[in-house]
Amino acid sequence: MSSPIPVTILSGFLGAGKTTLLRHLLKAEHGLKIAVIENEFSDAGIDTQLLGDEPVQVMTLSNGCVCCTIHTDLTKALYLLLERLDSGEIAFDRLVIECTGLADPAPVAQTFFIDEELRERYILDGIITLVDAAHADVHLTQTIAQAQIGFADRLLVSKRDLVDEPTFTALSERLTRINRRAPIRVVDHGQIDLAELLDVRGFNLNADLGGGVSLRPVSKAPSIDRISSLVLRTDKPLDIDKLSEFMNELLEEHGKQLLRYKGVLNILGEPRRMVFQGVLKLYGFDWDTEWAEGEARESVIVFIADELPEEKIREGFARVAAD
């Protein structure tokens, strides 16, 4: 069985430049065989003559990329691509899914966890969200735009040339308050190094909390957004049973508010790091490498969530430390 196909989810509001970025991705001579699933609601079709009556249109472009336009649910399109891949009709080794401007990336991401067959054939690599620097203030009044930022493993800021330095700095600080994990990059008219988009490994179970092991510092200004990041740290070893109880209770009561979360933990009596991460109520955990001799064993968890009761979580986490 060949290794699973990495999937990148492209999110962001209308006009942020998703289609421009996709065009660049589909036309560049990068030597990669990328399939793109484009939703029929996107602001400007990559190739408008593709839009016919068929529920799924598939076309191979001159550089070997595959463009797929769907008028049906995502799962059907994913299976159809696999059928054509297995039959030799098309060839691709990566997949990019463009979400519509007002779409919540969560259901798209969950597709790759819930469906067992799709989970074997595809692997979610990362969620990339485009942010329009010129209109971010307007877009971010909507919770769904904040959620798109909260879900992201990478934030790409477009139209940077249309705003001054203080505006860009203020936007960067706001994005950091919403999402402490995701590095911020500037994308210029769809041009960006592909290394920023592919092989992000945002959903890998490893000790990298995103953007390097250290989380980006955040200014002390209060958050004006419903979605924000909460980082918990302790150098006390954690009791694994209490941790399990804490997480189960948290997911039971607030699972729908937890957009993304990831932790690297020091468990009492265990020489290896424990890593875990999740999206909403779906999460996984594993043992990672051993702590190095003399290394400070600090547990760090980052939650990106919608209106989480911060004090309640801090108190609950404090009880997880082993007596």
TrEMBL record:
Annotated CDD domains: CobW-like (cd03112)
Keyword Hydrolase part of the UniProt annotation: yes
Q: Which UniProt keywords apply?
A: Chaperone, Hydrolase, Nucleotide-binding
Enumerate the SUPFAM superfamilies for this protein.
Hypothetical protein YjiA, C-terminal domain, P-loop containing nucleoside triphosphate hydrolases
CobW C-terminal domain location, by residue? 227-321
| Taxonomy, superkingdom | Bacteria
Mention one GO molecular function: hydrolase activity
Which InterPro entries did the record assign? CobW-likC_sf, CobW-like_C, CobW/HypB/UreG_nucleotide-bd, P-loop_NTPase, Zinc-reg_GTPase_activator
Q: Name one Pfam family in it.
A: CobW_C
Entry EC no(s): 3.6.5.-
The UniProt catalytic activity note for this protein reads: GTP + H2O = GDP + phosphate + H(+)
Q: PANTHER family of this UniProt entry?
A: COBW DOMAIN-CONTAINING PROTEIN (PTHR13748:SF62), COBW-RELATED (PTHR13748)
Q: What does this protein do?
A: Zinc chaperone that directly transfers zinc cofactor to target proteins, thereby activating them. Zinc is transferred from the CXCC motif in the GTPase domain to the zinc binding site in target proteins in a process requiring GTP hydrolysis.
Record's family?
A: Belongs to the SIMIBI class G3E GTPase family. ZNG1 subfamily.
**Which named protein is this?**
GTPase
Q: What is the lineage of its organism?
A: Bacteria, Pseudomonadati, Pseudomonadota, Gammaproteobacteria, Pseudomonadales
Q: What is the primary gene name for this protein? A: yjiA
